[in-house]
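Justification of computing resources. Each target in the renewal requires a structure prediction run like the one illustrated here; the chain below, 213 residues long, is used simply to show the kind of job we budget for.
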Amino acid sequence: MNILLCDDHQLLLDAMTASLDGHGHHVVGAVTDPSVVADRAAELRPDVCIMDLGFPGGSGIEAVRQVAQLVPSTRVLVLSASTDPSAIRESFEAGALGFVRKQDSIAGVLDAIAHLMNGEIALDPKLLRAAMSQPSVPRGRDAPGTSYYKLTPRETEVLKLIVEGRGTSDIADELHIAKSTARSHIQSVLVKTGVHNRLQVATLAVRQGLVAT
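Resulting structure tokens:
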């Protein structure tokens, strides 16, 4: 897997490069300035871009957005010391597909990369729930139910498992269906609810009370 790194600490970049290369991946570039990472991604076309969020004088959120828009084939994985729910939510809204804490081991980073390459989001279920914990849409009688989005009973089951942070393989196993079928149900849920990724649909489900949590 070709990987581009972006962090303002050169020592971390060196350590990550050595570790990822040692686990069979190939670090094609490492930059310390978030303002150039999108251009480097466009030049190198990596499979994954691992991005920090905290930089002197600003946040890496805009860099995440630029990479996601300029090179949509590159999956953005945020690697951050912060686990602030707002930062997690903003990262996914900007186009990130995964979020890993710097406190985690390299095994956690490798696992997240594997999830991304399987077309799944990479986020600890506890962090997922924390990111969804600030409702901005009224719940209860005034909030639309699953019938509003025309979700089938099976799609509602899939939505509940997404909210639990389950990946495609886990959903397929839980519902005793093929992985390709699970992937189709997930895509249908995203299309019907009008969102772009699993974090967004999980947030929508919790905020509007579409599934029991």
